[in-house]
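thought: fold this chain, then report.
action: predict
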Amino acid sequence: MELRIKEICKEKGITIGELAEKIGMMRESLSRTINGNPTLESLEKISNALDVPITELFAQKQPIFGVIILNGITHRIESFEQLEALCATYKEQ
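observation:
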């Protein structure tokens, strides 16, 4: 299970240490929680502290994944943005 907690903290301009303080945890404990197997209770505390729905804490699967070979070069595509950038590069050539 991949979580977006660090990304959300960055978007909101707070550090993991500040988040830990908000929810009454040691920074190290919060890091272990984020990188391990967090409980529902921990996720609820984190989502409340970040003021986001609990579902926002989970990374969304990208709807696209593939490999494209152009002119003998292999490109791994994991998002529409990567595909668009690759297309734009080859359109310019």
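thought: worth noting. The first strand starts at residue 66 and ends at 70.
final: tokens above.
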